Amino acid sequence: TKKMARYDDSNLKLEELHDGDEDYDRVSPKLTYVEVRAPIDLEEGYTFDAQGPDGSIFPVTVPPGGVTAGQSISVPFHSGVQLAPVGKWRNGLCACCCATCCTPMCCMAFWCCAGHLGQIMTRLNLNWAANPTTKIKAFSTYTILFIVSAICYIMGQPITLIIWIYLIYVGTKTRFYMRQKYQIPPPRCCNRCGALSDCCAVSLCSCCSTIQMARHTHDEKMYPSACCTPTGLRLDAPELPPDVLGAPVSIPIVVAQVV
Question: Order of strands across the sheet with 31-37?
Fold first, then answer.
């Protein structure tokens, strides 16, 4: 028999507007229900990513009682909200030239690249070593990378060389983590070693690499960047779902079907 679990959408944070208000149609996203099959056995409260009918990625929280592998869950999906695409980068590596030079994102990438990388790592819930962690612990990443950036400007050789190696290491791990998370294949020239392409992108053009990663997680037209926030986004921007820490295996992104 087909198992089905349904739960209400009580955790959404939407602006309180009423039907008939001037901005109601613009702000309120279209709510539909989609069916998601659990990729593995999960306990209640776990969060995993699913791909919506429009190709966008949205978080799914396991309802009370937990789910078993293959069990269907009917969950709310907002077709008006889209975060990171799956299967390819939202923008090319050299597309940073098309970004507005005066945006906070570009200013951070060119003038404080280490700090910008820290914002992206915080956004992805990564710690100072680019490993998945909790949201609370990830907030220290932003501070650590800004301190590293300040040391680069103050200290001379050989401290700067050591920090440069560290930044290439965490930058490569972050980029590799993003490609795995959003199922982005490496360039054809590096099919056998995708980490090599990530290392080259971070080493040869760190500014373009961080801009590409920052623009991928959130559409800059919908969610403008900001300089002095832990994630490099305005405080009202939606958060990315954290990885399931302690899960038995890596949870793949599943495809949702409209109910």
Answer: 4-6, 72-78, 31-37, 257-258
Cα(71)–Cα(174) distance, rounded to whole angstroms?
Answer: 32
Q: Is the peptide bond before 158 cis (omega within 30 degrees of 0)?
A: yes
CA 17 to chain centre: 28
Structure-block tokens of residue 172: 């490569």
What is the chain's alpha carbon radius of gyration, rounded to the nearest angstrom?
Answer: 20
Instruction: Give the helix/strand (H/E) hosting 168.
Output: helix 159-181
Q: What gap in Å lies between CA 145 and CA 163, rounded to an integer? A: 10
pTM for this structure?
Answer: 0.67
Instruction: Look at the alpha carbons of 216, 222, 227, 228 in this order and tell me if their dihedral is positive or negative.
Output: negative
Amino acid in position 8: D
Residue with tokens 């602006």: 15
Check residue 48 and give left, alpha or beta (phi > 0: left; psi -120 to 50: alpha).
Answer: beta
Q: In this structure, how many other beta carbons lie within 10 angstroms of the beta carbon of residue 210?
A: 29
- What is the sign, positive or negative, of the torsion defined by CA atoms of 119, 120, 125, 130? negative
Stated length of the chain: 259
Distances 1 to 37, 70, 72, 74 between C-alpha atoms, Å: 14, 12, 11, 16
- The amino acid occupying position 242 is P
pLDDT digits (tens, 9 = 90+) for 69-109: 888 888 877 654 556 787 889 988 888 777 667 889 988 99
Strands 72-78 and 31-37: antiparallel
Q: Which CA distances in Å does 167 have to 26, 149, 202? A: 41, 10, 9
